[in-house]
Design goal:
The complex is a heterodimer.
Chain A lengths: L2 E9 L4 H11 L4 E8 L3 E8 L2 H10 L4 E11 L5 H11 L6 E6 L6 E6 L3 H10 L3 E3 L1 H4 L1
Chain B lengths: L6 H4 L3 H22 L1 H9 L21 H6 L13 E7 L7 E6 H17 L7 E4 L7 H13 L2 E3 L6 H11 L3 E4 L1 H13 L11 E5 L5 H11 L2 E7 L6 E6 L6 E3 L5 E5 L13 E6 L11 E7 L1 E2 L11 E2 L10 E3 L2 E3 L1 H10 L6 E8 L2 E9 L9 H19 L4 E5 L6 E2 L2 E2 L2 E3 L6
Parallel strand pairs in B: 3-4, 3-5, 5-6, 6-7, 17-22, 18-19
Antiparallel strand pairs in B: 1-2, 7-8, 8-9, 9-14, 10-11, 11-12, 13-14, 15-16, 17-18, 20-21
The chains are: A alpha+beta, B alpha/beta.
């Protein structure tokens, strides 16, 4: 039920992000969402692609440092404050969100929010009990 | 002509110097043979007896000593005196955390201080002067070396040690320091701080400086002289031989006069090991003919220099060595600390990382800055920034504790560092050391 995210190490030099994205596009990878965690001397590009296994293999082959991580995906409504509920229940349960990013698709009727937590199983259970809609890989593509 | 600390030696005839050197070499060889098992084995292997050495000219019969011999006999294996005769220990960093340890008797400390005092006088210092010592005090020989030299001269030593640059400037200003002693890169930094603090260097009492423990250029000399409105003198030394004061600039600035009555120099071809004639650059070798505790025989310094025996305009007859042009090994000198690439590699391996790295040394704001580029391996990568930063900080701390000098860690893509013949090019030194 979790979503496989891929992370790629991006050395801090001009053009490196574009190179990485171009490389994946050339391999027919549909990138649904991405975010960049940026530090002074490097960045981590995190993204949701159509075929994560193939993407990681191709990136490593090309000399990138890449790996897969499972994250939680939830669907939230268009009404203001919808995402607050999900974040609130996790925080009430003492679950720390390491990072999060969101994206919309025309079909979904709402926004997808991706959450990185330490214990996916426990967080999913808490969200489910609170009535938050969890989504999987096929719901996004 | 000028003033000398010990004119009877500094301006002696070559014949007199040879007589002194011959007598000391004979005594030293005897001491080595009798008291250092390592040297007895070396002499036996060469079929040499102390009686075979009759004068300084026989020095070429003796075997060489290398830094590795000090490591192999770590810590005190080459000491030639019993413990009750030792009065001081110093040490410098070496590969894989093992230091090069040196010892001194009371006489050794005195002779070393004479060298430093000769250097101070050659730079124009007198008993009346305040000598501001900003070299680090501790196992490093810089601080105590100049300190004892200043006291032996009868001048006033101010043991400021290194760091806290604003306080350094305040002491220069308030105490009226007349001579500054530190590494040349730190002198530049102090000079720039003087300017930043809005102080006109002409209002300071400081008129000269003795700078050493790292290579520097004529350009740096001019810059330091302008920043501090002083005369900047080079002082050379290494702990294996004594410390700062092995050789020193006079007012002619045409090479550094070597205290050859204590430290006998040769320049050899590092390949054939044959002595080279005056003026030719090769590896500098010293024999500690005046030392009791650690009488090193033909110690290979790895510094590249040339000797000049011509008379000097200052009146000194002591042989001069030209400014070292580099080294015959891969040792780097970072802010006065000796760093070998093999130490960096050792730390990286210890952290469970792949040894794909490059050391970049640069001079920023007059200070040496070392950056270690490390190719990121899977073990160090995660989707979490905190994870990578923790690994980076661990590596940085390990570098500091092994090298004794800080290094910035920059992570780069795998296989991105330049390689030649499959091996990464380990060192990029961007400091300009030759004008």
């Amino acid at each position: 039920m979790f979503i496989e995210q891929i992370s790629v190490f991006i050395e801090n030099r001009p053009g490196r992000l574009a190179e990485t994205l171009t490389f994946l596009a050339a391999r027919g990878q549909d990138i649904r969402a991405f975010s960049v965690a940026e530090k002074a001397d490097f960045g981590i590009l995190r993204m949701i692609v159509h075929n994560p296994d193939a993407a990681v293999a191709a990136l490593k082959e090309k000399g990138f440092t890449a790996k897969k991580t499972e994250v939680l995906g939830i669907l939230i409504g268009n009404a203001p404050g919808s995402s607050v509920k999900a974040i609130q229940v996790l925080s009430d349960a003492g679950i720390n969100i390491e990072y999060t990013y969101a994206f919309v698709t025309p079909q979904a009727g709402g926004a997808f929010v991706l959450l990185r937590v330490q214990d996916n199983v426990r967080a999913a259970e808490i969200l489910r009990q609170a009535g938050v809609a969890l989504v999987g890989h096929k719901d996004i593509f | 002509m000028g003033s000398y600390f010990q004119p009877e030696i500094e301006t002696a005839t070559r014949d007199y110097l040879h007589a002194v050197q011959s007598a000391r070499l004979i005594r030293m060889v005897e001491n080595c043979y009798r008291n250092v098992p390592f040297y007895r084995r070396q002499f036996d292997a060469a079929g040499l007896l102390p009686g075979d050495i009759h004068s300084i000219a026989d020095i070429t019969k003796l075997p060489f000593t290398e830094k590795q011999d000090l490591r192999d006999t770590y810590p005190f294996g080459l000491f030639a005196v019993p413990r009750e005769k030792l009065v001081r220990i110093h040490a410098s960093s070496g590969t894989t955390g093992k230091q090069t340890v040196v010892g001194y008797t009371q006489e050794d400390v005195l002779h070393w201080a004479e060298g430093a005092a000769r250097a101070l006088v050659a730079a124009g210092a007198t008993k009346e002067d305040y000598i501001h010592v900003s070299y680090g005090y501790g196992l490093f020989t810089g601080g105590l070396g100049l300190h004892y030299g200043a006291e032996l001269l009868g001048a006033t030593a101010i043991p400021v040690s290194s760091g806290n640059t604003k306080r350094q400037v305040q002491i220069l200003q308030d105490f009226g320091s007349n001579f500054l002693c530190c590494t040349p890169s730190y002198a530049m930094f102090i000079g720039e701080t003087v300017a930043q603090m809005g102080i006109d260097p002409k209002t300071l009492a400081v008129r000269g400086g003795l700078f050493g423990a790292e290579p520097w250029t004529e350009n740096m000399r001019r810059k330091i002289e302008r920043l501090l409105d002083i005369k900047a003198h080079d002082i050379y030394g290494l702990s294996e031989i004594a410390g700062p004061g092995v050789s020193y600039d006079c007012k002619e600035f045409h090479g550094m006069h070597i205290c050859e009555d204590y430290f006998y120099p040769e320049v050899i071809d590092p390949e054939t090991l044959k002595p080279l004639p005056d003026g030719e650059f090769g590896e500098l070798v010293f024999t500690c003919i005046g030392k009791e505790a650690l009488p090193l025989v033909r110690y290979r310094t790895r510094d590249i220099s040339a000797l000049v025996h011509e008379p000097c305009g200052c009146g000194r007859t002591l042989v001069r060595m030209l400014k070292p042009r580099g080294r015959t090994d891969d040792m780097l000198i970072i802010r006065g600390v000796n760093v070998f690439p093999s130490q960096v590699e050792h730390v990286i391996l210890e952290q469970g990382l792949e040894p794909n790295y490059q050391i970049v040394v640069d001079r920023q704001d007059s200070l040496d800055v070392m950056t270690v580029l490390v190719e990121l391996s899977d073990a160090m990568f995660s989707d979490s920034v905190a994870f990578i930063e923790t690994a980076q900080a661990r590596l940085k701390n390990a570098m500091l504790s092994t090298l004794g000098v800080s290094a910035d860690i920059r992570l780069v893509d795998p296989r991105s560092l330049p390689r030649s013949e499959g091996k990464a090019m380990r060192v990029v030194d961007r400091r300009k050391l030759v004008d």
